[in-house]
User: Fold Aspartate carbamoyltransferase from Phytomonospora endophytica.
Amino acid sequence: MITHLLSAADLDRDTATLLLDTARQLGAALSGREVKKLPTLRGRTVVNLFYEDSTRTRVSFEAAAKRLSADVVNFSAKGSSVSKGESLKDTAWTLQAMGADAVVIRHPASGAAHRLAQWVDGHVLNAGDGTHEHPTQALLDAYTMRERMGRLEGLRVAIVGDVLHSRVARSNVLLLNTLGAEVTLVAPPTLLPVGVESWPAGVEYDFDAVLPKTDVVMMLRVQRERMTDSFFPSVREYSRRYGLDVRRAGLLPDDALVMHPGPMVRGMEIAPEVADSPRSAIVEQVANGVLVRMAALYLLLSGEKGAGE
Assistant:
């Protein structure tokens, strides 16, 4: 098992499958309990170190750690010594002195999680670093696909939208390729990163042409807060060409799945009727995120044992 969870590229097929299988076992172990807690990580300390605002990921990691009976410390850059100019290295030394067994970090700088892993003895989990990666999001997405579709091998997955600024897209492409899925990126040329041709994924610009041969369509949030230039003419034009509306959803195969990592911009990236339809797994992604993050913490902090022991 790996020491840290920094990148989806670090996961081979066996390790990724072990994480997904463990998440399922933990879900089964919790389902029969009146109190949704396991004693597995009692006495361990997990620190959530968030330099960027987050709701889903931070709460998901907190819930995951608490369900494994770990002690949780939530550290926000706002209102801390970071706002007074403390460096990441000094913060790392503080966490080291406090005896953190695992540190979950979200940071606006790509590579921050890798640097932190060099400075602390505990395990580091990357909860999103800049536009680089978000490996646990990719794991929960893969888990959701496997639970709903019954497989990952050979699944045709379209990832649509702001690929340029999306750490979710990068991690998903790497992980899904490792697990045998076929990934196609769909976006305007302005929202594709330099070097995307080296990614293990196809690239298409015509959304309508891709949909009939897609098993899973994953819509991405347009990250306007990261945009300093105009990457498309208007919101209306973007939605017309790359939004998943009711008409486009009708082009998908009957059993196709609709996903979105959130938060959604309804009406721009995805129509409310599609987001709330039976084929949507968006709410399941959130629930599955807790199980997958439980699995990651469990395997990093307690080694390979039977889940639920």
Observations:
- Residues 135-281 form a domain with the Rossmann fold fold (CATH 3.40.50.1370).
- The longest strand covers residues 123-129.
- The radius of gyration is 19 Å.
